Amino acid sequence: MGKSIIDKIWEKHVVHREEGKPDLMYIDLHLVHEVTSPQAFSGLRMKNRKVRRPDKTFATVDHNIPTDNRKVINDPVALNQMTTLEKNCLEFGIPLAGLDSPEQGIVHVIGPELGLTQPGMTIVCGDSHTSTHGAFGSIAFGIGTSEVEHVLATQTLWQSKPKTLKLEINGELKKGVTAKDVILYIIAKNGIGFGTGHIIEYCGETIAKMSMEERMTICNMSIEGGAKAGLVSPDETTFAYLQGRKYAPKGAGFADVVENWKYLVSDSDAQYDKTIQIDAADIAPMVSWGTNPSMTSKVNEQIPKLEECKNELEQKSLSRALEYMGLQEGQKIEDIQIQHVFIGSCTNSRLEDLKQAAEIIRGKKVHPHVRALVVPGSQQVKKQAEADGLDLIFKQAGFEWRESGCSMCLSMNNDIVPNGEHCASTSNRNFEGRQGSGARTHLVSPLMAAAAAIYGHFVDVGALLSAETVH
Amino acid sequence: MSGFKTLQGKAAAMDRANVDTDQIIPKQFLKRIEKTGFGQYLFYDWRFTKEGLPNPEFELNKAENQGASILIANENFGCGSSREHAPWALGDYGFKVIIAPSFADIFHQNCLKNGLLPITLPAETVEYLLQRAKKQPYDLKVDLQNGIIEDEYNFSATFTINEYWKKMLINGWDEIEITLQLESSISSFEEKRFAVQ
């Protein structure tokens, strides 16, 4: 029986296997941030333990930092968390891209950008969106703080091997349909728990044609479908992206590792526990209208009606979500008025995302009822975007142009959506209160967010782009 | 971490699907650098009104649920963020066992690491428990050693949990200590993996 890429990477990382126990897995890269690590370092200190491989550990601050003026941190509790990370990194010898570093950024943006993320690796971080790194053909997953401590101390984790899920997407994407729409469509169609207990391999011609940024967006939201991780086999696109990055192998060594990375593909007779097929042509620009990412519809559709629900539990969830969101069953998605636009987060804050949004924004103005902000994923993204003049396009349209961080994706800093107001957000979660107490989040692509900023409500960006091509 | 073999306690019903960790412990409470003291913020936005008063409609504020140590939940409990603050808050509040038809993976793992027992039971069994607990004060007995859960109305169900995690929960062992005993295996793995090719 053939093996999938998931089986191959897994087998290569088993340090110890024993009947009746999970596998003890080696971890190649451990990314650390300020919110989920302090208790782990305290645990080490209490037991007088060291960090086993500081050279395989990399830290940054992203979750609760300000994105307006980073010289002034008004929240003393957040500041304490940041300085605690600095102290911990210093004490345990861990490299840190701190607030003043040109390499600082959202942990899932800088890992790939610095070439830390590489094919065939096992990668963990105390953050559920670690699945992002799977775009490079690695097994990457989020862990809790106890596991952060375990990895710091031992560079390993006890893990039962998840099941495997092959998710194949073929066909041409329609105009205005992006990677974000693809993953939102997958979750809307298959449910918020469809991936629970599984690692997903995304494959098919649609995925093969995608850039690394697009693959990262898809892998990023694997967790929103409940999956442990999601990955894409590395190919020429992957190798080209990594070449020349700071921590990627250099010189002749690069060609050698590429030869090894080429074996990271699933055998043609590989077996999976589950298979899902998607036709790319079925996908439209998507908008979430509820309080979890599966509560999402195509922009030209309506919010479902209570009578369409499969069972009582679903009906209760729908009515609760509509009450929270202040929306009506059967309401047209395009009629939803929005007051905020957030372009950012580990899902959609890379250069390509900003470029796409800027193309929609260019020469236009943000709707007078809308407050819009762009938060680049990293200082490097910000710098490059400024070199390309994207900041001017956004600023002239009326967007705020910010410093890098997680920002309004989870609003741990002061970038908050006020109670009862609607936000078109390129982030990954629309849970109650995620962007602020009572805030109403709509998950969309950067293209859809940009169009919503101009019109003040959702519009079909596919139709918008087609109309512009005709002129 | 203290372990337990059996637990008799009051069960509270929370009949909602897809309860995410943002609800269990909202983000404004994640800035502490300790593991303790999170119980007061558990389900904060549901538990308290905008004015900061207990919301009488919320399940855990009902008189019959005071002092509950078992939470009966619905499908996909604990989805979303990997924040371990969620099981810290549930444990600090007083919960020792959570019963649901399904759990999100990371949350499930985080529970096991904190002496909080996640029990997966078939949806119809959980439905029975939910209906019982919604009506009146309801006690359950959980026998972790033998994987049995019972009430005083002749209900009994079995549950399974990986033997490894069962041992960890019962004994309250330090997992890192166990792993460090395999130090030589880790070192020889590293030698092979990072040997110059």
UniProtKB/TrEMBL annotation, chain B:
Annotated catalysed reactions: (2R,3S)-3-isopropylmalate = (2S)-2-isopropylmalate
Keyword Ubl conjugation: no
UniProt similarity note: Belongs to the LeuD family. LeuD type 1 subfamily.
Family annotation (Pfam families): Aconitase_C
Keyword Methyltransferase: no
Pathway recorded for this protein: Amino-acid biosynthesis; L-leucine biosynthesis; L-leucine from 3-methyl-2-oxobutanoate: step 2/4
GO process terms (BP): L-leucine biosynthetic process
Self-association and partners: Heterodimer of LeuC and LeuD.
Underlying gene: leuD
Function text: Catalyzes the isomerization between 2-isopropylmalate and 3-isopropylmalate, via the formation of 2-isopropylmaleate.
Organism: Cytobacillus firmus
GO molecular function, one term: 3-isopropylmalate dehydratase activity
EC number: 4.2.1.33
Any GO CC annotation of this UniProt entry: 3-isopropylmalate dehydratase complex
Name of this chain's protein: 3-isopropylmalate dehydratase small subunit
Enzyme class, UniProt record, top EC level: lyase
